[in-house]
Specification:
By secondary structure, the protein is mainly alpha-helical. The protein has one domain. It has four helices and two strands; from the N terminus they run H-E-H-H-H-E. The radius of gyration is 24 Å and the shape is rod-shaped. It starts with a helix and ends with a strand.
């Protein structure tokens, strides 16, 4: 197998693995399509991922504070009530942060897909999804 064919196959596989778009290839030269898709995929790597890790401690701390105050207001007794409320609030804060991280990861992938789609559209392709 020649180097050129091997590079073509590797480029094709890498482009299809990273870009989940459907393009009408009627009248499209396959080599041009693969080249353009590769370039658009490379451009999509410029999308910045939101860093949710810094907010994890803050979210958990807020949850603990709210839980502690809520337990005290609801009639929890002294330190034990505050500890119990803080523990519940901490758990809720951690779960909330986990949900936020998943949402941010989904948004990041969607943003990358949108960049690839827009890039391909701007290059004259008919993107169907």
């Amino acid at each position: 197998m020649s180097k050129r064919v091997l590079m073509f196959i590797l480029l094709f596989v890498s482009c299809n693995a990273t870009a989940n778009i459907i393009v009408d290839k009627t009248g499209v030269d396959e080599k041009d399509y693969i080249y353009d898709l590769h370039q658009c995929t490379e451009i999509s790597t410029q999308v910045k991922k939101k860093d949710s890790s810094r907010s994890a401690v803050g979210t958990a701390a807020k949850g603990a504070a709210i839980g502690s105050a809520g337990k005290a207001i609801a009639g929890g007794s002294g330190t034990d009530g505050a500890k119990e409320g803080a523990a519940i609030g901490l758990g809720v804060g951690i779960l909330s942060n986990s949900r936020n991280k998943r949402r941010d990861a989904d948004n990041f992938e969607q943003d990358k897909q949108n960049v690839v789609k827009n890039c391909m559209i701007n290059r004259g392709y008919v993107v169907l999804n």
